[in-house]
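ARCHIVE CARD
Drawer: 12
Card no.: 0347
Subject: one protein chain, sequence and derived structure
Cross-reference: see card 0346
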Amino acid sequence: MALKIKSNCINCDMCEPECPNNAISMGDEIYEIDPDLCTECKGHYDAPTCQSVCPITKCIITDPQRVETEEQLLDKFVIIQGLA
């Protein structure tokens, strides 16, 4: 599943530079995650770095609209990195 930033984001800019896939950018009001680029850090780290650096509890959550298996996330990682 891709991740999603909730409306309680305080725009602290902690998550954006930590994303290895450049999936996070500033939206109209808060930071947003591009689901086509989010692999939940599969292929890079053991856990999503954006969640680990976010100072707001449960601000970055799994997007229920973007359900993906670990295999699908790893396949997306391979494509994004140009390893396919």
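Annotation on reverse: The first strand starts at residue 3 and ends at 5. The chain has one domain: 3-80.
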